Amino acid sequence: MTANAQNLGQSVAKGQKTKLWQVIVIGSGFAGLGAAIKLREAGIKDFIVLEKANELGGVWRENTYPGCACDVPSSLYSYSFAPNPHWSRVFAEQAEIKAYLQKVAQDYGVIPHIHMQQEMLDAAWDNQENLWRVKTQDQEYQARFVIMACGPMHEPVYPKIKGLTEFKGTIFHSARWRHDYDLTGKRVAVIGTGASAIQFVPKIQPKVAELVLFQRTPQWILPKLDQALPPIAQKLFKHLPLTQLAMRGAIYSVFETLNGGMHHPNVMKQFQRLALFNLHKTVKDPVLRKKLTPNFIIGCKRVLQSNEWYPAMIQPNVTHVFEGVKEIKAHSIVGDDGVERPVDAIILGTGFEISAPPIAQRVRGVTGKSMAEVWQGSPEGYMGTMVAGCPNGFLMFGPNLAVSSSAFLIIEAQLTYIVDALKQAEQYGLVKIEVDPVRQQQFNQTVQAALQNTVWNKGGCQSYFIDVNGRNSTLWPWSTIEMRKQLSKFNLNEYLVKTEVTA
């Protein structure tokens, strides 16, 4: 983002506190930015976007660790209405994705709507006035409708390990990477080997003196079909946009096939052979290979891709600990195997709050209770977008809406639904739209029944898809085609509504 754009966003933040906005959007990652664009496109201009940081970016602003990149090809990991012919790789890296987001914000003229450094600390529904009161650190905003677009991957999870705060060396989470700390020649421990560690570990392994990996559960890892896109491909995408559209369609079909396979564990076992080949191709030591072989069906946890992970695993400066961490001391780390290993730095690759979105603790509905208090550890919504007891509130990436594909499929499907709701509210003079609790309960019973025999539920692993109560409150059990169909139109008959009282 240019300095001028930042200043423009900052200056808007000094607006009137008492103004009643039609819509407030929380967050300016891809979901929030998409909401802003679609609101303007629908002729809704009385809205603002509240952003906690001083620039746009969401998850791609927060995560800057070495090797940070998308695991969905760029042609599909982008807005369908804003294709980028200039992607440098099949799988774009963090800086390029963030730059794309900021350019789209500029191109679509939404920067003036964004209030920078305005973190939403509390959002409460006012039953008397039928509006939302949104508090930041220095202002209170009011709005008829709120779109909560905070995303699921920006609040790091810190493990509860004895002595974590007693460590005298350097310790940080992968999402809060210490670029000022030189890892060269250091003894480094990495706790957790999920999607982030798969990317940053191969980048730091050549630099460090010793790398100790604590990996209780090995992951299935597919080869990543990544490569640089030559200038001729970029020219082709620019001058013949249909070629990039065709590529997007082909990639979508592959991911949709994978998503469909998740409903058939036996099918995924066949797909698992590719991951086994990827492992056997590099790791020749039978003992290490056996320990790196997962004991669950592929797809039960997030499917990972890397061409560099296994080559890094066999290097002489890498020590594998297939156990958890028992304790952290001032200058060492003790595994559940009882061995104490001296380290200079600890990197936490322990992921994010997925099944328990942090925003739920800050949103209070008609009863005054927070969304998290109502959910009691098991998020529930209707169509993954509205939640009973939270009128006029829309939740991006809501309960049971995640898919094994591009997040943009979810974003665009939800925004079609939300914008249609807002247009109908204006058309019919509605001051309140609320989920029917009975209908929400019926919907969730159907969702949970459809999830029962999927690899996510029956694959034999513990994953972040499953909440603290053992319920899959994260994933959409059907195809993205079905998702787009169900979210293509907002059906007022499925909601409880209140019309504006006129004299």
Automatic annotation (TrEMBL):
Keyword terms, alphabetized: Membrane, Transmembrane, Transmembrane helix
Signal sequence bounds: none
Record field: transmembrane: 20-37
Pfam families reported for this sequence: Pyr_redox_3
Superkingdom of source: Bacteria
Keyword Flavoprotein assigned: no
Record-linked InterPro entries: FAD-bind_Monooxygenase_sf, FAD/NAD-bd_sf
Official protein name in the record: Cation diffusion facilitator CzcD-associated flavoprotein CzcO
Species in which this protein is naturally found: Agitococcus lubricus
Lineage: Bacteria, Pseudomonadati, Pseudomonadota, Gammaproteobacteria, Moraxellales
